[in-house]
Amino acid sequence: MTLQSHTLPHPPTAPGLPVIGNMIPFQAAKGIPVDFMQQTLEKYGDLVHFKVMNRSIYLIGTPDLAHEILLKRVNEFHKTGVLSVKPIGLGRFLGHGILTADHAEWKPQRKLIQPLMHAKHIMQYAETMACFGEQLLSEWQDGTERDIQADMTQVTMWIIAETMFGMNITQSPAIEAAGEAAQRISVADLITPLPSWLTKGRDREAVEINDVLTQVVDDFMAERRAQGETDRHDLLTLLMNTRDENGEPMSDEFVRDNILTLFLAGHETTANTLTWAFYYLAKHPDIAEQLHREVDEVLGGRMPTLDDLPRLPYTLMVIKETMRIQPTVSVFPRTIVDDLELGGYQLTGGGVVFISPYILHHDPRWWSSPETFDPIRFSAENEPNIPKYAYLPFGGGPRVCIGNHFSLMESQILLALITSRYSLSLDPEAVIKPLRQITTSPIGGLPMRLHRR
Fold this sequence. Notes:
By secondary structure, the protein is of the alpha+beta class. It has a domain at about 100-330 and about 370-450: CATH 1.10.630.10. The protein is built from 17 helices and twelve strands. It has helices spanning about 25-30, 35-45, 65-70, 90-95, 105-115, 120, 125-135, 150-165, 175-185, 185-190, 200-225, 235-240, 250-285, 285-300, 315-325, 355-360, 405-420; strands spanning about 45-50, 55-60, 75-80, 145, 330-335, 340, 345, 350-355, 420-425, 435, 440, 445-450. It has a five-stranded mixed β-sheet, with helices on both faces. Helix 11 (about 200-225) packs across helix 13 and helix 13 packs across helix 15 (about 315-325). The chain is globular and about 65 Å long.
């Protein structure tokens, strides 16, 4: 409800320092300070205000408020601002693609791209996903140690490059460089841009990478046009063949921005989910044993196919529980369009609302023993009882992640394939901690010992 007059109270405000407000918790965490956010909600209630420099942040803590923001009142809370600022945000790489575009630009993009992510397109990628998983396993040797984070990043990059864009990743080192550079953007940078004189090196790097990225995509598009290939099924070709409501082809900028959006966002999130899945399986041998029984019975050592997926429910349950206990995106923002009412409080237009899947996923009001890794939460009997919007691994509402079905299928295939051939163990002395920036990955990677089954 947009306010007509300022008659409502403001939410409780967490105290901070003069000028910088609560900037220190963000800088200390080098990313998203979920501990600070959880403690703030516990102390002040389910809707809290705090400041980072001169920006007002509102943190919400219930599924009902998330439901209002993401679905019921989506026109009042836009996905814009901190993510799309070109000099410092994801817009430096992704332009005005479907992830970073403001509300007006996003709606027609979603309408055009959504059919391309339909199951009929995605299902044909299952064999390719499994084949690249086999390619990764051909590099593994019994008894050796591997950085599983690096391996999952590599295999998911192979898959998304081939299935979505028809790209040979070995010809595109700029794509890998851009992914690494995007990881270095901290949440604090997105909320409070630093003065330009402090960021010249970072900005210069972004300009150089963008120049190469644009050239890479332009080259692939020129190749498609020169060869007259219109019957390929990768997303690049499908986007180039797409026509708007007037029958006009999409601009090269539209194609470029969305190609890079789906590439950079698509592989890294799935890679992190798989990485954490192997971590939790190593921590819970009883769960790993149950998973091994399922993949042994269904696959018998062979490569998984699309038809196998309905017969691998526990594998999918492990993936879903991994995304609950360690969601790859811990917090995402929405910008408040105008002064409005939410939860009985007045919120100021131009402020940013933070919705935290991590906090919602770890709240004992919605989850029994939330710190326990328990895939049975997502059994056919239990999953329907999860409160709506208490589980948001892909966001929610009309701007729910467009690649969610692709990611789940990829994760299920790769996890089933790898666990049918290997079990993985952690060094008992290893201390694995998450780094929560745009996505969540283990600090320093995830070294694990391979045991051929």
